[in-house]
Amino acid sequence: MENRCVECQQIIENPICPRCLGREIKQWLKEKVPELATILEITPNYGTGTKCIFCNKDVAICAHCFSKDVYLEVTKLRPELSEDFISCFNYGLREEFEN
């Protein structure tokens, strides 16, 4: 069974759940702007089918959509972090936001 992202309906090719990817993003934010790391909310969004490669929980949203949602929030608050965020958490964001 193909597991599709609840946002974009594409097949999830990089199965990393929001909890695991969010943990990485929060660590990055702690190094850049610690106060943003404390206000960023990461809500687990578990589905059925595809399992996270790190924690083995079900994944409902693809890494691209999740990182895009966080990117938009982070760059709304701190636009100067946009390039650094894309460099660290690309997942197709460079093609979407730099063209």
Protein described:
The chain has one domain (18-97). It is 48% helix and 0% strand. It has five helices and no strands.
Comma- or semicolon-separated keywords:
99 residues, mainly alpha
Short description:
With 99 residues, the chain is mainly α.
Along the chain, the helix and strand elements come as HHHHH
Profile the largest sheet.
none
Roughly how many Å apart are the termini?
A: 34 Å
Task: Count the domains.
Answer: 1
Task: Count the E strands.
Answer: 0
Q: How large is the count of helical segments?
A: 5
- What portion of residues belong to β-strands? under 5%
What class, by secondary structure content? mainly alpha
Estimate the mean pLDDT confidence: 85
Proportion in helices: 40-55%
The gyration radius over C-alpha positions equals: 13 Å
Tell me, briefly, the overall form: globular
Poorly predicted residue ranges:
none
Describe the secondary structure blueprint for this structure.
Layout: H1 18-32, H2 34-39, H3 63-77, H4 82-88, H5 93-97
